[in-house]
Structure formats: structure tokens, C-alpha cells
Amino acid sequence: MITDKRETELINFIRQDKLMKFYKSKEWFAVREQARRRDNYECQVCKSKGRYKRVQNVHHLKEVKTHPHLSLKLNNLQSLCIPCHNDAHERLKDVVEKKFMNVERW
Questions:
Q1: Nearest to 79 by CA among 31, 11, 26
Q2: Alpha carbon 23 to chain centroid distance?
Q3: How do residues 46-105 score in pLDDT, each as one tens digit?
Q4: Where are the domains positioned within the chain?
Q5: What is the dihedral of CA 49, 61, 16, 31, to 10 degrees?
């Protein structure tokens, strides 16, 4: 059980943009593991599409920077694989994959 004082300290880390202190806390690791276990260690987005991919990240549905009070709430967490987590944050959207253009090699 987390104390009110400790929760306030963790929320202050987020508000002060000291996110690594939050993400390295034992409280985050504990709730993160609860989310992973709850989701059976499966990416929930892939699962909703009928696919299986092992979980690699735990995503905050409501961002920690805008909703720090929800940062340790289990119902605000979702287990995701790295590609789905990148999609959720719209990361790598500017990276263009090189597409195969031609079979000819001269």
C-alpha cells in the first residue's frame, strides 16, 4: 500500500518533469507488473485484432504529464507491445519504410 506522502512525492516528480524518478520507483514497477499480469502478458491492441504479441510496455491511457494523479491507477494502464505503444504515442510516424521497387538487378 502506498502512503499519501509517497504518492504526492511521485506526482511531484511528474509535475517537475522528473519522469525517470517516477519510472524507476518501486511503486511504478509494482503497478506495472499488476497490469502485465492482469492482461496475461499480452499486448491488448494486438489481442483485440486476433493476434498475439508478448507485452513489452505498459501504457498510460491518460498521459502522466496531463493526469499525474492517475499515474499509479491500474484502470489507467494498458499492456502493449513496442510497435503498438509507438502507435499510441504517434512515434515514428515520419519514418518512411523503403519499399521494394523492382526485381531487376543490372
A1: 31
A2: 11
A3: 999 999 999 999 999 999 999 999 999 999 999 999 999 999 988 766 555 556 666 665
A4: 4-88
A5: -90
* DSSP symbols for 40-66: TTB-HHHHHTT---B--EEEESS-TTT
Residue with cell 504515442: 89
Other Cβ atoms less than 10 A from the Cβ of 29: the count is: 11
CA 29 to chain CA centroid, Å, is: 12
Q: What is 62-102 written as a DSSP string?
A: S-TTT-GGGTT-GGGEEEE-HHHHHHHTTTTTT--PPPP--
Query: DSSP character for 39?
Result: T
Instruction: Dump pLDDT digits (tens) for 6-43.
Output: 999 999 999 999 999 999 999 999 999 999 999 999 99
Q: Determine the Cα–Cα distance for residues 71 and 89; give it in Å rounded to an integer.
A: 16
